[in-house]
Specification:
Elements: E1 4-7, H1 26-29, E2 56-60, E3 73-75, H2 86-90, E4 97-98, H3 112-115, E5 116-117, E6 127-130, E7 133-138, E8 148-153, E9 158-162, H4 191-197, H5 205-211, H6 226-233, E10 238-241, E11 248-257, E12 261-266, E13 271-275, H7 281-298
Parallel strand pairs: 1-5, 3-6
Antiparallel strand pairs: 1-2, 2-8, 3-4, 6-7, 8-9, 10-11, 11-12, 12-13
Amino acid sequence: MTNYVACYGDGTYNVGTHFKDVGQSATHASANKRGLFQAGKAVSFRDCVDGLSQTLMHSETRSSVSRKPDSGIAKNVVGLSKNPSLCLAAAKDGQVEWWPFGRGSRWCHGDLTLTGFQTVLPPNSPSCTSENGIHDAIVSASSYHQKGIHALFADGSIRFITDSIDTGDLEAPGVSNVNGYGAVGSESPYGLWGALGTRNGKETTQTLLNSGAFLALAGAGDKNTAAGNASMLSDGFMRWTSKRGNVSLYAKLLRIIDKKTIQVEDTNGVIHQVPLNALSDRDMIRAVTSELRKKDKSQ
């Protein structure tokens, strides 16, 4: 068995199909295979257009040789690839059929359902295959940690990602060259989670960062427990970036001192004082706006 699975990206249509079995040109065949891994085809770091630090490689998964409730794969979910949310409902159905094996049951197999995951349903969601068979699947990252999973990024960093990470529209179809799906080359419909799974989705994760969606993503040096990470990141922690963009810190804003310096607390509880004019323009505005909101509430 294995508890580590490879990222196949945010595709939903036949993502587990072997590259040579697709029967189309290389361009068309890989249209919905947007992660760093895919069946039968090598992908290199130079193919990671979105950036190594913003692209997932591996995650954890709950595993078992035979199907168990926490590692099972539901089968025959009709319309799954066009509406991934159907998997959430199917897993709760007492009449659902299950594959006889569990996630991670054969590390050497290399199949999506056994040793892969997609950044579609949030971490610790169920896994399912459609009526089209085992290669038409949506399978999820999972763990026994509380409220999240640890994930390895292509730059070698390991970060804790909470179950509450932004997943966009789970009733939307994935990206594919097949009619009825998202346009090839378009951004992931599955929010920040989907964007982190693609190697070349051209999503602007900085835009997601600005919107606050990045609050569910923690740095590798955060507090010791998964539960601690999850609660902290829902309590005002965000990423602050320097004017040059070469330094960043996950922290929550405490106050602005003398209109010149912000005081923030990082995820390890360390207090930092940072000159306001050393921040990016966006973060300067965000700090001042937050301070004004606090004053309004207190009056």
